[in-house]
Design a protein that fits this description.
This protein has 210 residues and is an all-alpha fold. It contains ten helices and no strands. The chain has helices at 11-25, 30-37, 41-45, 50-63, 76-92, 98-102, 109-125, 129-150, 166-173, 179-197.
């Protein structure tokens, strides 16, 4: 028999399979990926640099769903707001991969390109160099935390005796059915408003002529 027309193994299939395992069970191993693909574990290592290589393939796969074109919008605050919303949506589709990616260095070139664009956007807007990564990391903390929140149950507070916590009970009763979205938009607006305060004050204009 000749070789199959469709290769049994490539980097795309490895990333897809590992991400499926993460979505299902919150973890993966290289032998599990190999078994799911019907190949030997050694065959997987011919295509990736071990477990860390698969993690970066998954990062690239998830981040490909982020609309990086939003970083070309102007003004900068519109661009960052739209980027944050798209970023959140991409990771909300795979919330169980977030802890894994948050504890692994970013190496994927296509992902680094997005960071490069974000840095360029903020520098072009006038942000001090020493504040640029703080802004990006703060935004990411908000985005990824909210993506996890989207996967949480709607009822996160179980009151066994509402009489003991009447104000909490009233506040929960008034909570929006779209609480994760409402909380995200509130926090995003507050973040961007604070980011604006980091910009240097505009230079004073020329003094009025007598």
């Amino acid at each position: 028999m000749g070789r199959p027309r469709t290769p049994l193994l490539d980097r795309t299939r490895i990333a897809t399979t590992a991400l499926q395992l993460i979505d299902e069970q919150g973890e993966f191993s290289v032998p599990q990926v190999a078994r799911r693909l019907g190949v030997q574990t050694a065959s997987v290592y011919h295509h990736v640099d071990g477990r860390d290589g698969i993690v970066e393939l998954m990062r690239e796969r998830v981040c490909a769903a982020i609309d990086s074109e939003t970083l070309g919008l102007r003004p900068w605050d519109t661009a960052m707001t739209m980027w944050a919303r798209s970023y959140r949506a991409a990771f909300a589709a795979h919330p169980r991969v977030i802890p894994l990616l948050m504890t692994s260095p970013v190496r994927a070139p296509k992902v680094l390109e997005q960071y490069e664009r974000a840095v360029g956007l903020l520098l072009g807007a006038g942000f001090p160099l020493d504040e640029v990564m703080n802004v990006i990391i703060a935004l990411e903390n908000l985005v990824l935390g909210s993506a996890l929140d989207m996967a949480a149950p709607q009822a996160m507070w179980e009151l066994t005796d509402e009489a003991a916590t009447p104000r909490l009970a009233s506040a929960l009763a008034a909570l929006s059915p779209r609480r994760a979205d409402a909380a995200f938009e509130l926090a995003l607006e507050a973040c961007v408003a604070h980011f604006r305060t980091l910009l240097p004050a505009p230079a004073p204009g020329p003094a009025p002529q007598p």
